[in-house]
Specification:
Layout (H helix, E strand, L loop, with lengths): L1 H41 L8 H112 L20 H20 L7 E2 L10 H28 L6 H18 L6 E2 L1 H72 L6 H33 L4 E7 L1 H4 L3 E7 L4 H8 L9 E8 L2 H11 L14 E3 L2 H12 L12 H16 L17
Antiparallel strand pairs: 1-2, 3-4, 3-5, 4-6
Helix pairs in contact: 1-2, 2-5, 3-6, 4-5, 5-6, 6-7, 10-11
Amino acid sequence: MNIVHYAAIGAVAFVVVLTILVINIIKLKSARADAAEKAAKLERYATITNAETEAERIVNAAKQTAEELIIDSQNNLDEAKAVATKTIAASEKDAKSITQRAEDILSDARLAAKRMNAEALTAVETQRVKRTEIEKQIDELRKSYREKKITYDELEEALSIYKDDMEFADMGFYAPHFDFETSASFQNAIKACRERQKNLLRDKTEFGAIHCPTEWTVGGSKSEGRKMTTRGIQMTARAFNGECDAAIANCTFKNVYQMEQRIYKAFDALNKMNEVNQIYINRAFLDLKLDQLRLTHEYRLKKQEEREEQREIRAQMAEEKRAQAEIDRALREAEDEERRAQKALDKARKEMESKLAQMTAEQVEKHQAKVSELEHALEEALLKGQKALSMAQQTKRGHVYVISNIGSFGDDVFKIGMTRRLDPQDRVDELGSASVPFLFDVHAMIFSEDAPAMESMLHQRFNEQRTNLVNKRKEFFNVKLSDIKDAVFEIAGNDVDFIETATAQHYYETKAIRKQKADIISVVPQEEKLPRFADAI
C-alpha cells in the first residue's frame, strides 16, 4: 500500500516538473522571437558606425538575456523541484499519516473484533453455563418430583389403610381362612396364636420373633452392646405389637384388608428403620400377627352370627310361648263353658227321665224345650271356644319393623311395616326373597301390644316423606334413620334397640366381586380416570 502511495506522489511531481520545463521553453522561444524582431529593426539603421561593436553588444545582450532566462528557468526548476520535494515529502507524510491512521483504525477494529469475539464467547459460555444450570435444576426438579410423587403415593396408600369408612368394594371380598364351627373354637385358636407369639418373643436366636445377627460393642464393651441390642429389640417389639393390636382392635368386615396392609406396612417400616442396627422382625412373627388378625375378625363374625341365631331362637321361643299361653287360656275358658253347659244338660236330661212318667204332655214339652236350649248353649260354648282360639291367634299384638335395602333403593329409604307372625324375621326374609335383588337390613324390630296403632302413628308422622305420595299403601319413606329413631322412642319408649349402620353385606360383596372381575378382564372400555398428579414431568 505504501509503494502505491509513493508512485502516485512521484507521478504528480514528474508532471509538475515537466510542466515547468514546457513553460521555460515557451519563454525561451518568445525571447528569441523578440531578439529577431529587434535585429530586424536594427537593419533599418543604415548608418551604423561600428557594426561589430553593436553586434557584440547585441550578442552580449542576448547572451545575458539567455543566461537570465536560463537562471530563471533553473530557479524555476529548482523551485519546482523544491515544491515537488516538499509535495513528495508532504505526500509521504500524509501517506504515512493516512497509513498510520488506517493501521490505527485496523488495530482498533481488530481489538474491537477481539473484544467483541471475547464478549460473544463469554456470553455464549455464560448462556451455556446458565443452560447447564437450568438443565441441572430441571433434572433435580424431576428427581425431586419423582421422589415426592413416590412419597405421596405411599402416604396416600398408608392413609387409605387407616380409613374405616371406605367402600367395601375397594377392598375386595374377604375369604375366610379358618373353618371353626363355634366362636369358642376361634377363642381357643386366638389364645394358641398368642402363646406361639410369646414363645417366639422368648426365643433369642435367629429363629425368634425379633433378632440381631450382629454382636455390637459400645465403647469397646460387648455387654454394653448387648444392652443396646436388647433395648432396640424391646422397642421394636413394643412398636410392632402396638401397631398390630391397634389394627386388630379396629378391624371390621369393611376394612379387614386395610388392616392387613397396615400390619405389612409396620413390618416393612420397622425393618427399614432398624437396618442401621441390623435388628429385624422375623417373617414367622408377621405371619402369626396376620393369623391373629384374621382369627379375631372371623371370631367376631361367628360371634355375631351366633348372637343373631340366639336372638332369633329366643324371639321365636318367646313368641311361641306367648301364643301358646293365649291358646291355652282360650281353650281353658272354652272347656270350662263346655263343662258347665254339659253338666246342665245332663242334669236336665236326668230330671226329665226321672219325672217323665209323672209329667203331663205340657210339662214334657216344656222340659224338652229346656233340654234343647241347653244343647244349643253347649253348641254355643263349643263355637265360643273355637272363636276364642281363633281370636287368640288374631290379636293386635305384633312387631313393627324398620328395614332398608341400600342395594335396591339407595340411602335414606326405609320401609316401616307391621307383622303378626310368630317370627317377624320371616316377613323380612319374605320381602327380600324374590321382589328385590338384595336382602333387607333390619334397623329395628319393635314388639307392640297394638302394632297396627304404632304403625299408623309412624306412618302419619312421616306422611310427607313417603316415597310414593299417590299410593299410600306403599310403606317406603325418604327420611333419616335418626328421625325414625326419635319418633319410635317417643311412641314406644327408649328400650327399643336400634341398629343405625346398614350392613348391606351382599350388596358390598357383589360390588367387590364385580370389581375384581373387571380388574382381570375388561369387557367394555371405560373412561380412564386421570391421577391427581402425573407420574413424571
